[in-house]
Every structure is written in structure tokens, then in C-alpha cells.
Amino acid sequence: MTNRRIAVSTMLLAILFVTPAFAHHNVTATFDISKTIPLKGTITKVEWRNPHASIYIDVRDSTGKITNWWVELAGIANLAKAGLDQGMLDLNQTYSLEVYPAKNGSAQAVGVTLTFPDSKSYDVAEKPAVVPPAR
Which of 103, 105, 124, 127 is buried most deeply by CB count within 10 Å? Predict the structure, then answer.
């Protein structure tokens, strides 16, 4: 019985520590970082949480059709360092974004810059971790 408890506990701990690694995806696997596209529209929803903040934005195309895009932003700590916080986003305003689009053509993207109606821009891209040089 004791060996079984140890085995189950070990498996649960392994799942606990491995799960966050799966939650953080590889941006280049899902998004085309070789090009950016502009989006302009009204933010309909803001999700301000880790590991990344995200916004939903209604974008009107040239035919007048509105598509609700999901745009992943940097983590909230990095957004704060860039000078941006959730309270600054107004759902009644029009914003411009420069984004890396999804490779599959869906209305999903990773944000690069977010520009407010007053032309103030913020860097909303996730910064790669700094790896210390090998000794």
C-alpha cells in the first residue's frame, strides 16, 4: 500500500510540474513571425492574466464584414514594464495593432505593438528570456 501511495504521489507531482511547460507554446509553431499585418478595430474583451494577457478586437474588412480577432499579448509583468495596464484599455475606442498572424489563417494573432487613438504606442510582444552566457 505504501509503494502504491508513493507511486501515485510521484505521478501527481510530475503532472503538477510538467503541465505549465505545455501551457507555454512555441510562437513560431503557430504564428507566422516572418510578417506582420495591421489590425484596426474596437476591443470587445480584455483578459489580463498570466501567462499572457489577451484582447479580442472587432476588425472590419474591406467588404464591411466584422471579424472578432483574438490577440495574445505579453505577460502582464512585461506589459507593466512597457507602461501598459488593463485600466488604460477602453472598450469604446478604436485601436491599431501590428500582429503576427496565425499560420492557419484563423483570426488569431500575437501582438507586436498596440497603438491608442491618441497615437501613443506600446510594445506588447513577449520578450525572449535572457539566457546567461556559459562559463
Answer: 124
